[in-house]
Amino acid sequence: MIGTVIATVAAASAVWLWMGPTTAHLRLARLTAQDHHRYRPDLRFLTRRRHAARQADAWHQATIDLCHALSAELTAGRTPGEALTRAVSSTDLPDPEALREVVAAARDGGDVAAALHKAAPDDAGEGLRRLAACWDLSLTAGAGLANLVERIGSTQRAARTHRLDVAAQLAGPRTTARMLAALPVLGLLMAGALSMNPLGFLLGTVPGAVCLTAGIALDVCGLWWTHRMALTAQNT
Q1: Model confidence at 1, in pLDDT bands (50, 70, 90)?
Q2: Burial of 50 (0-12, 13-18, 19+ CB in 10 A)
């Protein structure tokens, strides 16, 4: 009986050693799991940044629509306050509550320019701030508000078209940079699959630690440099 149990355990151990994961596989799995937990906050940061970019683009488009609607209402002969109220109500805004004070000021004869400045978002509020400046100019100098607003809308539309074109042209270089940054990880996976124990060299020897540190530093610098160049191209 005892001999049978010992034989069974020995056979199971042999099968596990033959078919089970190697030490390199286990180390690579632990390293991958640690990297996943380590970079989870970065993924949340990227999600927030993409959401902010979508919100900014929505505000740019809403400002363009607002300027064109306001210009059309003014051309139709309505007063500035009534025209602004009707234009805001007909515009699809990312945050409908953001311009509530603007509508109240336009309806009650308040300081519309100050309300526009207050309602303008930090990232995509240049259109509303320009509209506020034009509103002040029309009240103090008697300039034609309809023409000024139409120019703001045209300028904002041209700027948004330029940003979209630049973003489309930068999509390829950004994808290439990310792919090149992921190649070292792919190399580690392939070496681990071939039982070459790359992590043992990188984590267990001094030359390996130097190579690992230098590789990570160069990888991060490459991603940062690509990101900086893309931002410079978008802001040009």
Answers
A1: very low
A2: exposed
Within 13 A of 228's CA, how many CA atoms are on the CB side?
6
- Residue 174 · residue 230 · CB < 8 Å: yes
Which conformational region is residue 133 in: left (phi greater than 0), alpha (psi within -120 to 50 degrees), or beta?
Answer: alpha
- Is residue 80 within 8 Å of residue 135, measured between CB atoms? yes
The answer to whether residues 178 and 219 touch, using CB atoms and an 8 Å cutoff, is no
Give the phi and the psi of residue 116 in degrees, each rounded to 5.
-65, -40
CB–CB of 129/59 below 8 Å?
no
CB atoms within 10 A of CB 215: 13
Find out whether 177 and 222 touch, Cβ atoms under 8 Å.
yes
How large is the average pLDDT for residues 200-229? 85
3-state class (DSSP) for residue 177: helix
Please tell me which residue, 36 or 98, carries the higher pLDDT value: 98
* Pairwise pLDDT comparison (59 vs 33), residue with the higher score: 59
Place 46 in a pLDDT band, splitting at 50, 70 and 90.
low
Neighbouring residues of 131: CB distance < 8 A, sequence distance ≥ 6: 63, 66, 67, 70, 116, 149, 152
Q: What predicted TM-score, i.e. pTM, was given to this entire model?
A: 0.58
Predicted pLDDT of residue 201: 80
Q: How far apart are CA 11 and CA 19, in angstroms?
A: 12
